[in-house]
Design a protein that fits this description.
eight-stranded mixed sheet; binds coenzyme A; Aminopeptidase; 7 helices; globular; alpha+beta
Length: 180
């Protein structure tokens, strides 16, 4: 697993199976599931353990997932993933934060940190993310993290039998140096 990343308030670290109950509690909330592709609802009882157990194999494919924790208390509040396509030195970010922790700037703080990590430690050239059009809060996170709007992919994903448009944002290495 990658080394921990620390920010002003957060520690990003690898998940362990001890986190499974907390993950289940946080992602079982429909507020978290409804705007994510990877989180089924209702969330299966063994879903979190299986998800965490799969992380080492995912990491071999350059998909790195960090637990977002509050440094002051150690509390797990969310997750952030960087999915790399090494041949193009590009990667996609995905994240969720537990509902009771929304609005504190935590997603932005974690996203900025993983962008820094992606460029400085992973040598990436392009980092992008997209979000459901009906989830403007996630778009704000991308904007506040220094990413630029590139356009909206029409009917990009399907969830619960419905096609959803996804605005896309990115930051390039040369812009990151300016943004810092
Ligand atoms: C999207 C999500 C990660 C944001 O986490 P967060 O920690 O609350 O994010 P931050 O506090 O860093 O920033 C949220 C921003 O969105 C803004 N916002 C919140 N609701 C909004 C809305 N309905 N419309 C526009 N902006 C909104 C906030 O005001 C804040 O911006 P500001 O600092 O300019 O005021 C969180 O809501 C979440 O986990 N949602 C469910 C999972 C998900 O959608 N993941 C993203 C998949 S792409």
């Amino acid at each position: 697993m990658a080394s921990d990343i620390t920010t002003k308030r957060l520690t990003l670290r690898g998940f362990t199976l001890d986190d499974a109950d907390d993950v289940t509690r946080l992602v079982s909330d429909y507020e978290v599931a409804k705007t994510t592709l990877a989180v089924p609802h209702p969330y299966p009882a063994d879903g979190a353990a299986g998800w965490i157990a799969g992380h080492p194999a995912e990491e071999e494919r350059n998909h790195t997932t960090f637990a977002i924790t509050l440094t002051a208390t150690g509390e797990l509040i969310g997750a952030i993933t960087l999915i790399e396509k090494r041949i193009h030195l590009r990667a996609e970010i995905g994240y969720w934060i537990g509902y009771q922790h929304w609005g504190n700037g935590y997603a932005t703080e974690a996203t900025k940190a993983i962008i820094d990590w992606g460029f400085s430690e992973r040598g990436l050239n392009r980092i992008f993310a997209h979000h459901f059009a009906e989830n403007p809060a996630s778009g704000r996170v991308m904007q506040k993290s220094g990413m630029q709007y590139e356009g909206t992919i029409r009917d990009c994903v399907q969830k619960d039998g419905r096609f959803i448009d996804t605005p896309m944002y990115s930051i390039l290495r040369r812009e990151w140096k300016t943004f810092q």
